[in-house]
Amino acid sequence: MADTLEFNEIYQEVKGSMNDGRLRLSRQGVIFKNSKTGKVDNIQASELAEGVWRRVALGHGLKLLTKNGHVYKYDGFRESEFDKLSDFFKAHYCLELAEKDLCVKGWNWGTVRFGGQLLSFDIGEQPVFEIPLSNVSQCTTGKNEVTLEFHQNDDAEVSLMEVRFYVPPTQEDGVDPVEAFAQNVLSKADVIQATGDAICIFRELQCLTPRGRYDIRIYPTFLHLHGKTFDYKIPYTTVLRLFLLPHKDQRQMFFVISLDPPIKQGQTRYHFLILLFSKDEDISLTLNMNEEEVEKRFEGRLTKNMSGSLYEMVSRVMKALVNRKITVPGNFQGHSGAQCITCSYKASSGLLYPLERGFIYVHKPPVHIRFDEISFVNFARGTTTTRSFDFEIETKQGTQYTFSSIEREEYGKLFDFVNAKKLNIKNRGLKEGMKQSYDEYADSDEDQHDAYLERMKEEGKIREENANDSSDGSGEETDSSFNPGEEDDDVAEEFDSNASASSSSGDGDSDRDDKKPAKKAKIVKDRKPRKKQPESKKGKDPNAPKRPMSAYMLWLNASREKIKSDHPGISITDLSKKAGELWKAMSKEKKEEWDRKAEDARRDYEKAMKEYSVGSKADSHRGERSKKKKKKQEKQVKGKGDKKGATSKSSSSKSPAKGMSDSFKSKEFVSSDESSSAESKKEDSEDEGAASPPPSSEDSASGSD
């Protein structure tokens, strides 16, 4: 026989609702893990007292009773699994799995039997229904009636609110059957009554959710939040997890209490209680118990007189009373050295903390995502700017969380963290060896060491390491990822070298006209590379054929109006999601029709591209011929200009005054029109007469001007 039995899709009945999860039976005991909350119920084999197999609404169920009176119900078994379970119970637990059927006569007159934490209403020897007394929130009595009120369950579609029992009077003297019935119920019921004095009180604590300042009164079995408007009583049994998270500014601390079921205010449900503390705020605390009681109850975890930071005192007291470990951030360090990442979720800015076994986001709305419920993560480009990116998480239940506006410097750190935790990354696809190695039945909060205690001991050392890492790592990443001003520095150096060259050449000549050509030559030189930049980067030809659309885009263009009419007022984002769902659900035959249309469009595109490429080649040949012709003309003009420059040089000794002003004329002032220069020479010779000397280069230049 196998040492373990495992069952998927088993439902545990908790306070009127059925929570699905996984059940494993082993030699050591029974383990059930809730898929929704990650909470683990572990029943040791030595604690089992009775096992009952019975037919229920969801097939067949298993009821387990322990020696201390607790009852556990699991439904969703098949009838064929009875023999396997019965043999397993005999072999490993030494228990007979008894078969008991419920009474379905429909009678409402019977006997009430109290057994442990269970109220059973029986007709004869068969039970009609059972009520776990932990579900009872209040018990009131009348003349011959007892009324039981129950905790409301938000997850259940229909909740049972109350049950009334008629208790007939008896002839026994001194015993009131109604009061006896009520006392049996109240002894096991989960009734919150603020009787007695509080163990300690914390005054005016800042609470982010629910918002306001509250006095927190610590009682032995529950927590009482007393505010100006609302009061909340939170049983310690509803506390799932405790988190102590440092703020990014290193001056504040978040203390987060995860609750299931949540506290309620009207239609609002608060699954998380978030307190904000300043690290500088200290307190001296005295417990309202004598030292013997403190030692007996808390076994050294608390003392009667304590002092220290306010957040340390609150977290220490809560840890001792709830008996759960406090989760703190792990080894993750962001770009700035902090243990969190600034981001936005649902249009509100907050902080995302990568933990050792999950992610938590504070504070509005708070979100806690365990690694074992994550299907994959995705790194997406930011929608508004390229300086940020989005981090998307999708759970196995299909819920998607998008944390946006994360600085791109955080990408490397976050990617390495996700990679180290072996989470599936959608961008990269599923790779071999990246399968998660989490124990499916391990508690999501359990760690082999208490990280909170280690953090308290080494807080100063960690702060120094964080500061060093942030100062070193930030400089390296900034240099490698983004180098602002490189081009500007190069341009500045180029201008500086030109300026120094022009100033050194201008030292020998103090004339103003000497400096002007130098500046003009420098400007022309600096503009050349800027003219070439747009030429090297070719733009898209508007006459080029458009790329063909895919089958999905063709279908979307044809179906967009129909989707809008079926869903009036739908946004663009929701329309895209809806279209994706419709396309995914479309049959293979319909998709093939759009694939054929896409193939036809691709052929037309290839044909148009061939025609376009032939035409563009002809245009490029014509352009090359025109460029060659233009260059040839420029060379001819340049050659004639050089000859004229030589003649002007020889005649400059005869007329030094004119030569000084005109010898520095740049090429732009030399006319490229040969006919105009010839005509000007002819006019000058006619005006001066035959006795005048031959025209100098200065006169020809002035004539051309």
Describe this structure in words.
- The chain is of the alpha+beta class.
- Among the domains are: 96 residues, PH-domain like, CATH 2.30.29; 77 residues, PH-domain like; 128 residues, Roll (PH-domain like), CATH 2.30.29.150; 81 residues, Pleckstrin-homology domain (PH domain)/Phosphotyrosine-binding domain (PTB) (PH-domain like, Roll), CATH 2.30.29.30; 53 residues, DNA Binding (I), subunit A.
- α10 crosses α12.
- The longest helix is centred in the C-terminal third of the chain and has 64 residues.
- It starts with a strand and ends with a helix.
Helical coverage, percent range: 25-40%
What structural category do the secondary elements indicate? alpha+beta
CATH class of the domain at 198-325: Mainly Beta
Please state the CA-atom Rg, rounded to the nearest Å. 43 Å
The total strand number stands at 31
Overall geometric form: extended
Secondary-structure arrangement, i.e. CATH architecture of the domain at 198-325 = Roll
Biased composition (Basic and acidic residues): 532-544, 634-645
GO cellular component, one term: FACT complex
Region (Disordered): 459-552, 609-705
Protein name: FACT complex subunit SSRP1
